Fold:
Amino acid sequence: MELISLGTFLNAVSQGLLWSILAMGVYITYRILDFADLTTEGSFPLGAAVDAMLIINGTNPFVATFASFIIGLVAGLVTGLLNTKLKIPGLLSGILVMTGLYSVNLRIMGKANLPLLKQPTIITTVTDMGISNSNAIMLVGIVSVVIIILLLVLLFATEFGFALRATGNNPKMISALGVNTDIMIIIGLMISNGLISLSGGIIAQYNGYADAGMGTGTIVIGLASVIIGEVIFGKTSIFRSLISVVLGSILYRIIIAFVLENGLQPTDLKLISSIVLAICLFLPVVKEKMFAKKSIKNMNGGANNA
Amino acid sequence: MLKLTNITKTFEPGTLNEKKALKGISLDMKESDFITIIGGNGAGKSTLLNAIAGMFITDSGKIEIDGNDVTNLPEHKRAKYIGRVFQDTRMGTASGMTIEENMAMAYRRGKHRTLRKGITKAERDFYREHLKMLDLGLEDRLTTKTGLLSGGQRQALTLLMATMTKPKLLLLDEHTAALDPKTAKKVLELTKKIIAEDKLTALMITHNMRDALKHGNRLVMLDKGKIIIDLSEEQKKNLQVSDLLSMFEKASGDSMTNDRMLLG
Ligand SMILES: Nc1ncnc2c1ncn2[C@@H]1O[C@H](COP(=O)(O)OP(=O)(O)O)[C@@H](O)[C@H]1O
Ligand SMILES: [Mg+2]
Structure:
C-alpha cells in the first residue's frame, strides 16, 4: 500500500520549500529573538497583496517579489516600534499590526481576492524556458531557499548577528556589552517579516491569487515547521536549525497531503494544523523527560555550582 | 576615575510600595582603587552598582566616569567603560551561545556591531590563551555552549569576559555568593589577581565581612541607602569583623541582626 502518490509527494515537497521561507521568518522571531510575533498573519497576505497588485499592473515578477520582501520589512518595523518605543507587550504589538494589516491589505487589493490569471510570474518565467510546471515550482523553491539560508547563515556569523542572537538569549548581558537591544529587536522583526511577506508573495504566484484571508493560521504553520524540524532533525547550530526548519516545513506539507488523501477535507486543514502543532509542542517535553531520567541516573549527586 | 555626587533613586515613587533605595550617595574613586562594599539585605548595594552601570537613570545627582558625565546615558552607551559580573551565574553569558562567541561579544564591548565576522581565527587563538589562565580546561571547549558549564566555570568565564578589554571600571555584585565555598574562593582569588595585574578600578559587593576586610584598599558600608562607613586602607588594615560590627551599630543605631552579614 502506498501512503501517498509520488506526484503528491513531490508537490508537497515544492510547497514545503515555498512555505519554509515563512517558517524561517518565524524561526528568527520565535527562536532567535524569543519573541512570539503574530504580525506573521498580516505580513504574509501583505506580501501576497503587494506582489499580486504589482504583477497585475505590469511590474516584472522578480521586482514584484522583491517588493513583497521590502513591504514586510515595514510591517516588522511597525511591530518593533510599538514594542520597544511604546512599550506595548510583544504579543499585543503583533496582534495590533496583524489586525491593522487586514484593512491595509484590502486597500491594496481593492477587493478580497485578486486573481493572477494570465500574468507572468517567477514560475512562468521558468516554464517559458521549457521546464514543466511542477519542476519549475521545485526549482524556484530550491533556489530561493538556498539563497536565503546562505544569507542568514552569513548574517548570523557577523558581529551584528551575534548581537541579535544574544538579544533573544540574554538581553541584559548584551545590553551590558553595549548593544542597544531595542534596535536589535526592531531589526530582527524586520528581517523576519520581510521573509514572511516574501513567502506570501511567492505563494500568491504559486496559487495564482492573493487573498485577504490567506494569513489565517500561518503562525501555526510556521511554528509547526520550526518545531517538527527541531525535534526530528536537530538544532545544534544556526545552519543545522535552518535546514531543520526547511525539512520541518516539507514534512508538515507531507502530513497535510497524507490526511487530505485519506478522506479529510481542505476545510479541516486548520484544525489539523493546530493538532499537528500541539503534538509537536508536546514532543520535546516527552524527549526532555526521558532525557532527564537518564541524566539523573548518570549523576551521583554532583553539586550544580562546582 | 568614578565620581558620584549626591545620587538618589526612589523606586515606585508616590505608591504604597515607594522605596527610597539610594538617599544621596557621594563617592570619589581614584584610578586603580579597589573598594569592597558591605551592608545588610536591601541596603541599596545592588541598586548603587545598577545606577553606575545605567540600568536606570538616577533621580538626581551626577555620575562621572573617567571625567565623562554619564548621568543621563543609557546602559548600552556606558558599556565601553564598564565590566560587570553579577551574582546570578546565568546573567553574565548568553547560555545558548558558545564560549568563544560569548568572548567575542565581550571583546567588542561598547563598539559598533558591524557586518564583519563575529569572530576571527586570530581571536580564537587569543581566547584560548586567555582561558588557560583560568586553569579550568575551558581552552579546549571553545565551542561548548555556556549553558552547559557549571556555575563556577561560568562565573570565571564572565569575570574573564568582563576584564578582557581592561574596563575603566569593574563592578562585581556578590559574584561569588552563588558558588560553593571552594569554588567561591577560587573565583575570588582570580578576581584579586586580575584586578592587581591590570590595575583595574573595581567595586566589589560582598556579604562576607572577612573578605571585605581582606581585599581591596577601601571599604564602604551602606545602610538604608546611605554610606555610613568609609574606611581607607590604613583604617581597615588592622580591623576585625567584630570591630566592623560595633562600628556599624554605632553608625546606624541598629544592632546587626542580619544573619547573612554575620556569616563569614
Ligand atoms: N527594580 C526595583 N523595583 C522596586 N524596588 C526595588 C528595585 N530594586 C531594588 N528595590 C528595592 O530597593 C532596596 C535596595 O535593594 P538592593 O539594592 O537590591 O539591596 P542590596 O543591598 O541587598 O543589594 C530594597 O528595598 C529593594 O526591595
Ligand atoms: Mg544585592
Summary: Strands of chain B lie at 2-11, 19-29, 34-38, 60-65, 68-69, 82-85, 169-173, 202-205, 218-223, 226-232. Residues 181-198 of chain B form the longest helix (18 residues).
